[in-house]
Amino acid sequence: MGSDGAEPGSVRPGGRTARVRTAVLRAAGDALAERGFAHLDLADIARRAEVGKTTVYRRWGTATGLVADLLADMAEQSLPRTETGSLLGDLRANARLVQRTLADPRQGALFKAVIAAATCEAKTAEALHHFYDVRVTEWAPCVQQAIDRGEVPEGTDTHEVIRAVSAPLYYRLLTSGGPLDEDAADQAAAAAATAAAAGAYLRGKELG
Amino acid sequence: MGSDGAEPGSVRPGGRTARVRTAVLRAAGDALAERGFAHLDLADIARRAEVGKTTVYRRWGTATGLVADLLADMAEQSLPRTETGSLLGDLRANARLVQRTLADPRQGALFKAVIAAATCEAKTAEALHHFYDVRVTEWAPCVQQAIDRGEVPEGTDTHEVIRAVSAPLYYRLLTSGGPLDEDAADQAAAAAATAAAAGAYLRGKELG
DNA sequence: CGATTAATGAAACTGGAGTTCCGTTATGGG
DNA sequence: CCCATAACGGAACTCCAGTTTCATTAATCG
Questions:
Q1: Which of A170, A200, A207 has its CB closest to that of B171?
Q2: Other CB atoms closer than 10 Å to residue A208's CB: what's the count?
Q3: For the segment A152-193, what is each residue's pLDDT rounded down to a tens digit?
Q4: Cα A204 to Cα B183: distance, rounded to the nearest angstrom
Q5: Distance of residue B208 Cα from the nearest chain A Cα, in angstroms
Q6: Which of A62, A77, A83, A152 is least crowded, fewest Cβ atoms below 10 Å from its Cβ?
Q7: CB-based contact, A105 to chain B, within 8 Å
Q8: A8-62 in CATH: which number?
Q9: pLDDT digits (tens, 9 = 90+) for B85-143
């Protein structure tokens, strides 16, 4: 009569359970990149991961649930940030990192797929938001340094500046379909740096 | 033997055929907004449209095919553009229009859903790109006017400036989940106007 | 190391998404 | 107005994504 206990995989998370999760998440990433979110098939993922499909359904339940876990895993793998000494240089480094990621066939397709999945389920959306929170928080300090150097006005929302760099690149990826080349990255970085220096990202209120 | 002829609905596009298309596209929009792309069910759409499900499968085939047609229909319904006399004013009007659309529960959900669908099928992606091309082309003249007035340097990519206004709003909608309020719209407009005036969107090459 | 039981996985099962068949409706041309 | 047939729609059918069952394997605790 007691409760059903916790989620499968939480009581004995070591050994096989961990290996299964790794294999399934890897297979899920491959399948998402190759086939897209709409054509995702959990049985196919189980086959790729050399795991019983029952296991995949039991532990993750739905395609969006699996993507949510994949996003949680992706959020943990952080890339080191480079520092160049100027805001424009730092933003450009960030823009080119994002651009290279989205322009890469596998990674670009993967990001499209996880974003598509996030539009279909609140829990997956939350996982996606967390993933970007982590990435943005990693880069925000370079804007703070620019504030300290006097390049950017006090009171600027540092996170918003970082998001402003990525936004046009994601817009191209998803809606315009324009080329995601280095020029696009540099343009995004330059626009964000210029706007930030002019105080366009001051916290709390917009420019008059 | 001879060819199979054209797509169903192309030989006798009037009367019932047109009514069916209208009813199905309306039902598809409702279903996408309410349930999201992943939970889309063509039989359910047929029921809502009071149409045989055979008809929906025959004419549109797949969920992504139906969304592609919906996007073609949406591209034809254009909204009038307001003019304020200044670039910032015009961009702000555009930004608030986009913001209000995305913040609206039904429209916001619908846009998320069509973007999700577009990530899954090349034809649907093309339809989405065309939709945004139409919208951007409608607003680009206000940037040209700013160039003519001397507010923005010659050689600026007018379409890119318009896209720069929308990009941060779509970024919030899809990845950050931050509030889509008027301040967000005004900030996007101000940042784009500032960057455009500084020559960040010059065609062909980025700033040094 | 051995007992307990969480977690896995093969196989059989089920429901509904998508298809096929064919009779009915009504469009567009003459 | 009438005919040929494009397009629709109900019903029966198929097939596979997702579920259930239960035996097997191996993670954790003592």
A1: A170
A2: 6
A3: 999 999 999 999 999 999 999 999 999 999 999 999 999 999
A4: 8
A5: 9
A6: A77
A7: no
A8: 1.10.10.60
A9: 999 999 999 999 999 999 999 999 999 999 999 999 999 999 999 999 999 999 999 99
Q: Which residues of chain B have pLDDT under 70?
A: 1-5, 205-208
**A6-35 residues touching B, CB cutoff 8 A:** none
What DSSP designation does B51 have? S
**Class level of CATH domain B78-197:** mainly alpha
Query: Quick check: B67 CB within 7 A of strand C?
Result: no
Q: Is A155 on the interface with B (CB under 8 A)?
A: no
Nucleotide nearest to A62 (CA to C1'): D18
Instruction: State the nearest residue by CA to the C1' of D25.
Output: A16
Query: Given pLDDT bands bounded at 50, 70 and 90, which one contains residue A3?
Result: very low
User: Which chain A residues contact residue B203 at CB under 8 A?
Assistant: none
Taking the domains of chain B in order of start, what are their residue ranges?
Answer: 8-62, 78-197
Q: D4 C1' – B60 CA distance, angstroms? A: 26
- Nearest CA-CA partner of A51 in A27, A85, A75, A84: A27
Give, in Å, how far the C1' of C24 lies from the CA of B55: 14
At A2, the pLDDT band (50, 70, 90 cuts) reads very low
Which has the closest alpha carbon to A134: A97, A162, A107, A111?
A162
3-state secondary structure A117-165: HHCCCHHHHHHHHHHHHHHHHHHHHHHHHHHHHCCCCCCECHHHHHHHH
Q: What is the pLDDT of residue A7?
A: 83
Question: What pLDDT does residue B8 have?
Answer: 86
> Hey, CA dihedral for A91, A201, B192, B129, is it positive or negative?
positive
Residues in chain A, how many? 208
In one-letter notation, the amino acid at residue B34 is E
Picking from B96, B114, B123, B174 by the largest number of A CB atoms within 10 A of its own CB, the best residue to mutate is B174
Q: How confident is the model at residue A79 (pLDDT cuts 50, 70, 90)?
A: confident
Chain B contact for A71 (CB, 8 A cutoff):
no
Distance CA B113, CA A174 (A): 12
